[in-house]
């Protein structure tokens, strides 16, 4: 809890923003207390959710997601599969960039070729290329139509397109690669007014906005004059700014602060299921984890509901497997590893694991409390489990490299699934040799199902393949399956028209001031 004196002092510090920002704050501004500054304002040059949240208020995409995470057209008015490797998009009429340039099919083709062609980003290759899978080329059919050509069938193209924003070809040619970092020319609801690095991104309403997706009413220009992202990294400072009325939305609200926000007169807590699966990767290539009985025992040994209740303040959904319940092809029939300490001990004894065997859970400082709780609960089996804290820059590469992780035991980590498609999480983390397969899990049946689903155009068949793959994974228990945390926000009662989305976007287009 934050004391009243500390809260007021912190709020005063946040309010005292240097320069004209504080003086110019208007009643029709919506202000976000945001945990991180943007890395860049070039949509092609990052792989960072916080950066995309800011950019997505300046730029729009061909497709977007509504608050229920359904994919809907945005710049595109329609789209269709011509065949398994070709998709056609029809562009809405009357869209203009903030500079006044009209948006045409040429801009769409330029945008996606800049993302996927080697060296197309000022001699560099976009770090977002991997998010577009086998997309090879985007070609102009006519002024309002483009076709995307894939090297092989890739049914999740539509689910991945909301992560990509369209840029103005002429503007990129005018300002160059360096200029794109700080001088965006989007077609979204707000245009950039000023970027004060480390302090604030200030945007003004774009009067010429075409309105956005009609599938997410109300369409039309933004309903506030300005949108301001104030960069406030410290949790206590963001909370103080919200409660003092200095900002209207804050992200990354700690579960421990929920009661404090709910008790205030001017703010409330908003929450939504996130898209990040948490798990403890077990080193499947090292004894005793080579024995499936040990892996199952650890799943039975962990009382994860105790951690969800006592540490996470009931802001997470326990998982029986890999996927979020909100994801496509989620298998709702997976068996549960019920908390059963006696059964866990019996399995360990059957596998020949001696009492007192020492095991280590690797993790980062941000997850220290959870890792220590997991270690304590697993130690009730008679094992001696402890947590070891590492710098992320050391830990992640260590667990990604089979040779370097050879002597490690367990790794408390997570993997995001922003597309809510199994391909986005199961292929990298569970396919043999996957870039995120920290457990070293390898199963021929899972590989076969994932490979087949990756190119299967029939969505019902894909779903069945993924459900079967999830069942095998849960049975083989390469991880200790943990939970899906909720994303928590603090929201001022002076605004309406906004609620959080599972993809972490803070879309301010439809926010209105009511108080």
Explained architecture:
The protein has 515 residues and is α+β, with helices and mostly antiparallel strands. Helices cover 29% and strands 23% of the residues. It contains 16 helices and 20 strands. The chain has helices spanning 4-15, 20-24, 49-55, 105-116, 157-160, 169-180, 235-243, 258-262, 292-301, 304-310, 341-350, 368-378, 392-400, 423-430, 444-455, 459-476; strands spanning 29-34, 63-65, 71-73, 76-83, 86-91, 135-142, 145-150, 190-196, 200-205, 226-231, 249-250, 267-273, 276-282, 316-318, 358-364, 384-390, 410-416, 479-492, 495-496, 512-513. Strands 1, 8, 9, 10, 11, 12, 13, 14, 15, 16, 17 and 18 form a 12-stranded mixed beta sheet that branches. Helix 1 (4-15) crosses helix 7 (235-243), helix 9 (292-301) packs antiparallel against helix 11 (341-350) and helix 14 (423-430) packs antiparallel against helix 15 (444-455). Mean pLDDT is 94; it is low at 1-23.
What tags apply to this protein structure?
four-stranded antiparallel β-sheet; alpha+beta; 515 residues; twelve-stranded mixed β-sheet
């Amino acid at each position: 809890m934050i004391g009243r004196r500390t809260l007021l002092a912190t709020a005063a510090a946040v309010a005292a923003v240097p320069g004209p920002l504080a003086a110019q704050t208007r009643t029709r501004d919506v202000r976000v207390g945001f945990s991180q500054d943007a890395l860049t304002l070039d949509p092609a040059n990052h792989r960072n959710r916080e950066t995309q949240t800011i950019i997505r208020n300046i730029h729009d995409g061909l497709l977007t997601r509504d608050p229920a995470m359904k994919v809907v057209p945005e710049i595109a008015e329609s789209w269709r599969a011509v065949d398994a490797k070709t998709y056609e998009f029809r562009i809405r009429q009357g869209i203009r960039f903030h500079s006044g340039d009209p948006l045409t099919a040429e801009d769409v083709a330029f945008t996606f070729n800049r993302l996927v062609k080697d060296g197309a980003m000022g001699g560099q290759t976009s770090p977002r290329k991997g998010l577009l899978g086998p997309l090879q080329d985007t070609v102009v059919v006519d002024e309002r139509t483009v076709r995307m050509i894939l090297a092989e069938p890739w049914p999740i193209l539509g689910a991945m397109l909301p992560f990509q924003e369209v840029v103005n070809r002429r503007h990129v040619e005018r300002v160059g690669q360096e200029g794109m970092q700080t001088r965006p020319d989007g077609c979204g609801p707000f245009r950039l007014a000023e970027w004060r690095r480390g302090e604030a991104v200030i945007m003004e309403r774009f009067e010429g906005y075409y309105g956005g997706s009609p599938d997410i009413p109300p369409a039309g220009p933004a309903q506030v004059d300005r949108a301001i992202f104030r960069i406030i990294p410290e949790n206590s400072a963001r909370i103080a700014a919200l409660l003092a009325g200095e900002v209207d939305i804050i992200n990354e609200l700690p579960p421990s602060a929920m009661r404090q926000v709910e008790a205030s007169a001017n703010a409330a807590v908003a929450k939504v299921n996130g898209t990040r699966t948490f798990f403890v990767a077990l080193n499947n290539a090292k004894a005793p984890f080579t024995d499936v009985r040990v892996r199952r025992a650890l799943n039975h040994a962990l009382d994860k509901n105790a951690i969800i209740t006592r540490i996470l303040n009931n802001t997470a959904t326990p998982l029986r497997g890999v996927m979020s319940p909100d994801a496509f092809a989620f298998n709702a029939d997976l068996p549960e590893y019920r908390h059963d300490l006696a059964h866990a001990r019996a399995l360990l004894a059957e596998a020949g694991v001696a009492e007192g065997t020492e095991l280590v859970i690797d993790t980062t400082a941000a997850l220290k409390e959870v890792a220590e709780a997991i270690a304590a609960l697993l130690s009730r089996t008679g094992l001696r489990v402890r947590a070891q804290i590492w710098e992320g820059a050391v830990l992640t590469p260590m667990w990604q490299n089979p040779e370097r992780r050879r002597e490690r035991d367990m790794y408390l980590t997570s993997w995001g699934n922003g597309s809510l498609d199994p391909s986005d999480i199961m292929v990298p983390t569970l396919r043999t040799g996957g870039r995120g397969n920290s457990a070293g899990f390898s199963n021929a049946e899972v590989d076969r199902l994932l490979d087949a689903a990756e190119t299967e155009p029939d969505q019902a068949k894909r779903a069945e393949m993924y459900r079967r793959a999830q069942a095998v994974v849960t049975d083989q228990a390469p991880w200790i399956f943990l939970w899906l945390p909720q994303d928590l926000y603090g929201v001022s009662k002076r605004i309406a028209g906004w609620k959080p989305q599972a993809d972490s976007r803070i879309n301010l287009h439809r926010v209105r001031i009511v108080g």
